[in-house]
Design brief:
heterodimer; A: 330 residues; mainly alpha; MetI-like fold; two-stranded antiparallel ribbon; 17 helices; 2 strands; 77% helix; globular; B: 352 residues; alpha/beta; four-stranded antiparallel sheet; 11 helices; ABC transporter permease (chain A); membrane (chain A); MetI-like_sf (chain A)
Chain lengths: 330, 352
Amino acid sequence: MLAYAARRLVLAVFTLWTVTVLSFIIIQLPPGDFVDAYMAQLSATQSNVSEQHFESLRRQYALDRPMYVQYLKWMSGVFSGDFGTSMMWRKSVLDVIGDRLAMTMVLSMGAIILTWAIALPIGIYSAVRQYSIGDYVFTFIGFVGLGVPSFLLALVLMYLGFTLFDSDIGGLFSPEYQLEPWSWGKVKDLIYHLPLPAIIIGLSGTAELIRVMRANLLDELRKPYVITARAAGMSERSLVLKYPVRVALNPFASTVGYLLPYILSGSVIVSVVLGLPTLGPLLLGSLVAQDMFLAGTIVMMLGALTVIGTFLSDLLLMWIDPRIRFGMVQ
Amino acid sequence: MQDDRQPILSVRNLKTSFFTDEGIVRAVDGASFEVHLGQTLGIVGESGCGKSVTALSILGIVPRPGRIVEGEILLRRETENGQSQEVALTSLGDSSSEMRAIRGAEIALVFQEPMTSLSPVHTIGNQIIGAARLHRKLTKQEASELAVELLSLVGIPRAEGAIDAYPFQLSGGLRQRALIALALSCDPRLLIADEPTTALDVTTQAQILDLLRSLQEQNGMAIMLITHDMGVIAEMADQVVVMYLGRVVEEGPVDTVFGESKHPYTQSLLRSIPSIHSTPKVQLPTITGTIPHPYNRPAGCPFHPRCPDVIPGVCDVHEPELQSVGDEHLVSCFLYHPVPEPSSQRSEATTG
C-alpha cells in the first residue's frame, strides 16, 4: 500500500518533469519568439520603438540563449517558487495567475458537483426504468446535450438573457463588484453568477455521465446478486441503491482524475465567450503572444492537476473497491 | 409442528409468460406440485424448461417482461394461535410489504451462481446482517453474532474472520456455503435451491448436498431443489417433478419415478445417465433433437417431436394432461391414458 503510493509519487514527479520539457519545447516551436510577436503588434499600431529596446528585452528574458539554457533558467526559478515573468503582462506569472486560479477552481468544482448531482440520479432512473417514457426523454435531452457545442449554448443563452431579461450573464461578477476587494457582497454576487457558467461548462459532461451511469447500472442490474437481494425481501429502492448502484459507481472514481484538467482546459472557448476570469482565456492569450513563461506555467499546472487527479482517483478506487484494495496486497 | 400431511406450498396450474417484442414465451405453462415440510422436492429437466422461472414465480420476483398470467401459489403459514392459514402469494402484489415479509423470511432462495450471487463490494457479513435485520428485530451486534453462528453452521472455517471477507476472497464452495448462510438468516421454512451445485466440482457438490440435508434434519424446513442432474435428485429428493417446456410431465415419489418411470422423457433422461455398469467406450444414449424454440412450441404434446414412442395423429394433435397412473404417481402422456374423442376434436378443429 505505502510502497504503491511511493511508486506512484515517483512516477508522478517524472511525468510532471516530462510535461514541463515537452510544453516548453512545443511553446517555442512556432517561428519567432515573444519579441517578434511584440514587434509585430507594435508596428501594427505604428508605434516607434528602437531596435535596442527589443535587444534589451531579448537579453532580459534570455531569449537570445539556446533553448536548454532558457529551460534550465526557468526551472531553477520554479524550484525557488519563482515561475518567471509574464512578458505580456510585465508582471510575475504568479501575480497574473493568482485570482484566476482560484476562480477557475471554484467554477470547476461547481461544474463537477452540478454534473454529478444531475447526471447520477438521472442515470439511475434511466437504467431502473429502462425504455420508459422518462428514459426516452432523458436520452433525447442527453444526446442533444452531447451534440450541441457548449460555446454555442453559451452564445444562445447570452443572447436570450440579453434580449428577454435585459441582463448580462457573462462573467462571474456584476460590473460594480468587478474590481472590488473581496467582501460578503462580492461572494454573494459570485454565487449568484456561478450556476449558469457551471451548467454550460458541465453540460456535455452531464450528458456523457448519464449515458455511462445508465449503461453501468444496466449491466449490474442483470447480475445474480440483485436477485439474491430481491429474494431476501429487500425493497426494490433500497436494494438498487445498496448493491448495483454502489458497484456501478466504481468506474466513476477512475474518471475523477481527468475531470479537473478537463473542465479547466475544455472550457477555454466557453470562458472566452462568456468572458470568465478563469485560466482558459489567459492560456489562449499567452499562447498567441508566445508568452512562454506564462503559457509554460499554466500547462505545467494542467499537467500537475492531471497527475494529482489520477493519483487521487487511484486512491479513491482503492478505498471504494475491495477487489483492487486486496488485489494489491497479494 | 403443524400437520405434516398438509403441504407448506402448493402450486396450482402456474403459468408464467414473458411478453417480448418477438412474441410470448410461455416459460411455465401449467405447472402444479406440492412441497411438504421436512421433505425435499426435486424439480428436474433440461435447461430452459422453466425450472428457474418457477422458483422466481414462487418468490414473486419474475423479471420484466415476464409475469404470472394464471394459477395459484398457496403458502401455509402458522398464525399466532398455532393454527395454520393459507396465503395466496399470487394475490399479493410483487412489491407489497406482505410479499416482502414472506420473501427471505418464509421462503429463501439459494441461487445458481455462487460466483456472482453476492455483491462483490460488500463483505459477506454485511450482506448476511443486512438480510437478517430486514425481517428480525436485531441490533447490529446481535445480527453480527448471528452471522458468525450461521457461517460456522454452514461449515465455513474461522467464521469470525469470514464475516469480514469479500466474496472474491472465498472459493466457489465457500461462497455457496455463505449464500446458504444468507438464505438461512431468517430461518425460512421453505428453501428454494436453484442449481446450487452446478458451478461446483464434484467433491464440493457432495459436501453442499450433505450440508443441505443435515440442515433440513436440524430445522425441518422444506427444500425445493431445482437441478438438471438426475444423480442429485436421486440422492436428495423425496418427491420428484419432471418438467419439460414449462409443463410437468411426470411427478411422484423418487423411488417410483426412478424405478417405474412412465413418461418417455423421464425414461430418456434416466438412460442418459452414465452408469458404472455400462460397457466402456460406448456412446451414451441421448435424447434426439433439441428443446424447441420457445416462440414456436409444437402443437399437442410438447415432447412429441423428440419422443421415441410418439403416436402419430394423437401426440401431435392433442395435449395430454397430468393423470394418475398409480399411488401418488402422475404422468402426462397418451401412452397411459385415453385419447380424447377424435370426433369431437375434429369438429372443433374444423370450426376453429
